[in-house]
């Protein structure tokens, strides 16, 4: 824009840009105190076993309620927390809180196999992650198998020498390691055989075109077939329609998540959903 108007024309105050910048500074300064102020909470979305139709697990999704900024979803603030480094502390809280919640639910007879949390690449690269996971499991007296860590392919592109060691150390705690948004990112498949990964979640971007779009259907089909022959668990994400569910069942996809089953829910609502859903005949 400035360039088009001539090379040396300094545009001066750009309200658009200034607003973007002040929003950013505002978010970053509010984020710094948000944890201590108790402004975060988690919602939970069920994972459905497609063979039985039952809800078997849950994914914790972070929400931020700030007095000035209102209610924000992770798309609006996680990248800021990554830039500032706050995501390491916030992410540790997410892991602890999800474990605590699972413990509480199990004590009340809500029989969830595991709880999944999203882990940012910045957390993954921080040496505290393994200790954080161990402490959270210990605090809530949970087996490693009760926790699943979801990471995007972003953790793989830095190819730092520690990547393999971090995966191995996490694996030693017994937690399940899953690649989230599979297929959206860097698509180097090599890591699937090098790293101790338990599962992948097919990016919702492929689900949108199912069953009408042939390319999306073919990609989903190929991902499910590959994952199953590698012995990996597969979850179809973003399932919104019955046709999409049937497509995944037809491919033998073990697990699914999406608005068709339930939106992410506050803990009390999740408990209600879980009881009602699993009492139904599937
Ligand atoms: P994700 O882990 O892939 O989570 C799925 C996102 O899709 C969630 O959005 C969920 O609400 C939404 N979703 C689920 N089912 C459907 C559906 O059927 N249709 C549509 N259109 N959307 C669906 P949300 O909660 O806004 O989270 C967005 C992303 O933010 C997550 O993607 C994850 O990458 C990140 N995130 C969430 N919580 C955390 C966290 O605690 N830590 C970190 N580092 N990232 C998080
Ligand atoms: Mg996820
Ligand atoms: Mg995803
Ligand atoms: Mg997800």
From TrEMBL:
Residues 24-278 form the EAL domain. This is EAL domain-containing protein. It comes from Tahibacter soli.
